[in-house]
Amino acid sequence: MKLAIIGQGGHSKVIHDIVKAIKGIEIVGYFDDKYDQSYMHQGIQYGRVLSAKNMLDHIDDIKFVVAIGNNKVRKMIVESLNLLDPRYAVLIHPSAIISPSATIGYGSVVMANAVVNADAVIQKHTIINTGSVIEHDTKVGDFAHISPKATLTGNVTVEEGVHIGAGATIVPQISVGKWSTIGAGATVTKNIPNDCTAIGTPARIKVGKKLIGGGQVVK
Ligand SMILES: CC(=O)SCCNC(=O)CCNC(=O)[C@H](O)C(C)(C)COP(=O)(O)OP(=O)(O)OC[C@H]1O[C@@H](n2cnc3c(N)ncnc32)[C@H](O)[C@@H]1OP(=O)(O)O
């Protein structure tokens, strides 16, 4: 497979290592807005993010991955590129364990030692980061990021754009609403609405300096 990597920050270094570990993938382009102009070096194309699309003129079977950790920026770039879903690669580190009944959407990346169990549904352009666990029947929405060592237990729903912080745990049956953030190390025991941040054990919703949960202001 020929692959162009879009984004050249810290997250993309890890994706680069995954690509090398998978074998059989040839990197044919790196794209980032840090490159002022397009140029070719040792057979690899470099250029600004949106110029990645021009690769389609030269390589019919090329695939892309948007290797940017920020969920909103990743979505913005995918929308700007406006490519068909199958143009995006699914990259899974060889040490990850994926159930045969789980599904992983286009553009998603599963990092080393992650586990995705039976009937889990991972949608598009997600990051299933190092050592995270996605348990049976759990759904992870488009553009979500499950950080290292986070655990989504069974039948959890994580909606579009959610960021689950490192080491956080979501207990069974719970849902986390669109574009919300769960702090590192939190334990989420109640449903979390859209567009908010929750921290701690049990997790409370953060409103400015205050933490709100179970209908009462905790602090
Ligand atoms: C490979 C990778 O690196 S993947 C990236 C993984 N990234 C993560 O896991 C980060 C997840 N993000 C966090 O945990 C963040 O701290 C957030 C989003 C929860 C909060 O961020 P902010 O809104 O900027 O909060 P801020 O840093 O101002 O802290 C506000 C208060 O909450 C506390 N706080 C912040 N995060 C947490 C947390 N995870 N758990 C408990 N308390 C926290 C702070 O100590 C501070 O307390 P204080 O007011 O008593 O001093």
TrEMBL record:
The protein, known as: Acetyltransferase
PglD N-terminal domain residues: 2-81
CDD domains: LbH_AT_putative (cd03360)
This protein's record includes keyword Transferase: yes
Keyword Nucleotidyltransferase in annotation: no
PROSITE patterns: HEXAPEP_TRANSFERASES
Source organism of the structure: Niallia oryzisoli
Keyword tags: Repeat, Transferase
